[in-house]
């Protein structure tokens, strides 16, 4: 990444989430010496040039009353996966939809859709509704309910932690730099 120092500050400021204030881009800009409009323009430029792949929301579903979730995996014909992926992803109760390569012969699935609900019955009802709405009755799929809840976070592009002198740095489990 050929980022300027200011862009590095900006990416570091947004990668852990936007501040929960009425004007988050003004707040971020004030911290790094940009106006609200400049902050928005720089983020848009970083999205446009591919430095940042996407800017989205990480929702803590459990705290909002959604106690069940399932990843529904689909074996979509390759010539239909883009169109069906767009249709599935547009459904309001689908919180995540993305394509992944198959790993044959054990894993034939190439489209993944996360569905949350207040309980398992609600999730299964939503999956049945999705099948009906998107014409998926003949498409092989599996429903994988979560058993554990993991902490969600967005992508990390820049190490925003304060740097320690080289002799005091901790190293990751893999033995590389933090």
CATH superfamily of the largest domain: Lrp/AsnC effector binding domain/regulation of amino acid metabolism (RAM) domain
CATH class of the largest domain, named: Alpha Beta
General form: elongated
Helix % is 25-40%
Task: Assign the structural class, choosing from mainly alpha, mainly beta, alpha/beta, alpha+beta, or little secondary structure.
Answer: alpha+beta
What does this structure look like?
Helix content is 31%, strand content 14%. With 178 residues, the protein is of the alpha+beta class. The chain folds into 2 domains: 5-56, Arc Repressor Mutant, subunit A; 61-145, Alpha-Beta Plaits (2-Layer Sandwich). The longest helix is centred in the C-terminal third of the chain and has 15 residues, at 120-134. The protein is elongated and about 55 Å long.
Write the layout of secondary structure elements.
Layout: H1 5-14, H2 24-32, H3 36-48, E1 68-74, H4 81-89, E2 94-99, E3 111-117, H5 120-134, E4 141-145
Structure characteristics:
single chain, 178 residues, alpha+beta, Alpha-Beta Plaits, four-stranded antiparallel sheet, 5 helices, 4 strands, 31% helix, elongated
């Amino acid at each position: 990444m050929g980022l300027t120092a200011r862009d590095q500050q900006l990416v570091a400021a947004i990668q852990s989430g936007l501040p929960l204030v009425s004007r988050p881009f003004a707040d971020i800009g004030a911290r790094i010496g940009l106006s609200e409009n400049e902050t928005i323009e720089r983020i848009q430029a970083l999205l446009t040039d591919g430095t940042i792949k996407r800017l989205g929301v990480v929702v803590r579903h459990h705290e909002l009353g959604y106690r069940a979730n399932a990843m529904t995996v689909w074996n979509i014909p390759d010539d239909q996966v883009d169109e069906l992926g767009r249709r599935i992803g547009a459904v309001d109760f689908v919180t995540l939809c993305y394509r992944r390569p198959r790993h044959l012969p054990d894993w034939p699935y190439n489209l993944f859709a996360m569905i949350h609900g207040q309980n398992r019955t609600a999730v299964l009802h939503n999956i049945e509704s999705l099948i009906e709405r998107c014409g998926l009755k003949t498409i092989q799929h599996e429903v994988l309910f979560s058993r554990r809840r993991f902490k969600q976070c967005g992508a990390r592009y820049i190490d925003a932690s304060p740097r320690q002198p080289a002799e005091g740095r901790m190293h990751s489990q893999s033995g590389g730099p933090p």
